[in-house]
## 1
Amino acid sequence: MLTLEEIGARIQSARVTRGLNQVQLSDKLKEQGLHISRETISKIESGDRPLSAMELPVFATVLSVPVTELLKEETAEDLVTLFRRKAGVNIVSEEIAEIQDMMKALIRQKQLHEGKLIVRKREPIWRV
């Protein structure tokens, strides 16, 4: 399931790819008739504020990305579903889920190494 944090990270990634800071993005959105402050953009990118159905296409236009790119699910099917379709597979679904989690972690590490993943630093839960 797609989360607000994932959508925000995609918006942030598209903004950074186009060489825009949050103030510049705010200005470009205002040119399109959408008045959103830099602070609100920060909240959207961190997943603290959702985008409305009216705002999303404007963001996509300004960032030159299709709306579907901002909203697409990372994987159409997970490994558990694929293995369940096969008859006679003797692997426990928990093991498959663990393998899937490991693969996702490896993919994220690769994206991080290639600079395609932007990591947001957060305060640890135990300090709050």
Note: The chain has two domains: 4-71, 79-127.
## 2
Amino acid sequence: MEVFSNAQLIVMTTLMFIGGEIFTSMVGLHLKRSKIKTAWKTEGKATTVDPNYSVDQIQLSTHPVSDYRAHPFEPQKYASSPYYNMILNYNSIKFLGFVVLGYLLVIQILGVASVSVYLALFPSAKDVLRKKGIDAFTFAVFTIVSTFASCGFVPTNENMIVFSKNSGLLWILIPQILLGNTLFPSCLRFLIWVLGKKIKKAEAKYLLKNTTKVGYLHLLPSLHSSFLVATVLGFILTGFILFCTLEWNSAGLSGLNTYQKVVGILFETVNARHSGETIVDLSTIAPAILVFFVVMMYLPPYTSFLPVQEDEQSPLECEGTKRRRKWIAKNLIFSQLSFLVIFIILICITERKSIKEDPINFSVLNIVIEVISAHGNVGFTTGYSCERQLRPQANCTNKWYGFSGKWSDEGKIILILVMFCGRLKNFNVNGGKAWKLM
């Protein structure tokens, strides 16, 4: 990472910001709102809709109206309008889009400010950047954007290992990891509820009660959101206990006091879901923990234990005839697990020579970790170590890049496909339903 210039890091920051799941979903909301507006104009409904029913700054007429001024939507006054639900749905989507934008900007601005203040107050962290020639503000922006977008990139070659003793910095990044990924739906729902108490009451109420109709993936029903929080915290607690039990006195945590170990292990466990930043060399930790990390990386971000039925119908139940038309295609599509197994087998074939000559570095477990990490867009990697070679090479040097850096070109191309499939896995959430495991 340190070979990139300050300008290149800024370009990467921009790409990570606009490629983040929350940003792209917000753009989707605004496009959906524009689509509704266009549909209204196309259907020519403005000829029958009173201007008082229209939404803010929307001209429903197909002909220009020079003195048009939109009036605020008052649901109590116009509840009898036949266009009430349409207008309320439009206003709600518009409101949701700006809420997501505000959430995105406020959380990251607070994060950048917090990291900048920390670097100013604690010279030990800033000295690391000074020695590496990394601008402090660029580091703050790059790291926060990467963490919030679950990219796992850090401008240092050693990822966060060089900051393992800077517990304050780790505390700043932990909320960014959770708020930008696994806890986003719950926090978004809570924010809408709070804003609904003061402003946009009708829109907030509509969003909270019609999550399926709104069609925003990250807006979950109340019960699901509550169980999601419990599930995320449960996974973190399980990983924390497992890591403390097996790795408390490990070499990776040597030199840290008790408090630093607790914060470091918590940071590592939180990252196991979808962020991929690390304070230890993953290749040195217990295989049992690596298997746990593999499971965590495989699970979708909004996985939750939901033992009761929800009030709202699922999207599949609401599709009706559309669902019946697609059932054949869904049955023929492989599940995500099936795709992963196929990719792992293909990579084991392309890397069979390295597996034979360098079996410790190219162990099947390391390959599985790399593939599952790529599919979950996490970024965890065991790296490559010259010390683990059975036949040491004189020109071998240890470098802090991903394990896939030693793969063949064919293996890297397959891993790129894995990352694309992982980013688009929401389009295949129902694949493989025809298989019955009994």
Note: Residues 116 and 153 are 18 Å apart (CA to CA).
## 3
Amino acid sequence: MPSPIVSAGSFRRGLYGENQPFASGWMPVGGPHEIFYEECGRPDGKPCVILHGGPGGAINPTMRRFFDPSRWRMVLFDQRGCGRSRPNASLEDNTTWALIEDIERLREKLGVEKWCVFGGSWGSTLALAYAITHPERVESLVLRGVFLLTARELRWFYQEGASMLFPDAWERFCAPVPEAERGDMISAYHKRLTHRDRKIQAEAAAAWSQWEGDTMSIRGPEARPSKFNEIDFAIAFARIECHFFANGGFFGEDGWILKNMDKIRHIPGWIVQGRFDVVTPMDAAWRLKSAWPQVRFEIVWDAGHASTEPGVVDALIRATDQAFRVS
């Protein structure tokens, strides 16, 4: 088994330059949903699909900058219910399996045979689930902040674990929930985020989003994405994320990804993991590495969860450059 690389060098590569989509649009995916997608980079370049986090997050211009736009054809899309996809914040027919089929619909629409799949946090969960379901369509995987969506990980971040490292932020997270309901914070939030009263939804969404924002970077709360302060974004993010977590990611059993790794062990892969990632601790990435012996695994010792931490950016840029050479 290859030893993990621990990165700490003084020279670090930055993001590729700003680039604009050369195509974009909405694609109906069944039921009420239309997903927004865009293509960036080189139209005849090597194809990749970039999966955002959450669930319930959205694509943003920075995500285009992890790939060399002169060599890659980048495909990004807002998953059901979030970003510019329609209808906003909808939980109807919004499951992991629906999102996997959306990726396939988009691949077919764009005429892609196989592609590199890139994802961080929930994006890594979706990337792995997609690869396990459609291994013949995945040329390589580049993952950051690995999240396997197990009960153990959910307990750590939403019940007891991260709360001991961030008691001040945890107190704010608990504030909308009565003491009697705090034994199951995900259920308590799910009740509020699906309430008919938008004011109750908004209060819960603001607290849910702030908890994640406060814990995602070693640079502190100032690194929290500004969109977390926008109530429409926060409601979609919190509602969809909590919906997925309350349903165990819609997996048939806890630990489903690791139990199915034999289906994708042959696919070339890269994992980049912040040593001090509190949102998705390194234990999950380490377990994944153990089940995927040939994966290239890099620990960034001075990073948390955020994709924009300098060491994480450097490691991901090197990974996508290496992935370009996979054939």
Note: Residues 13 and 323 are 16 Å apart (CA to CA).
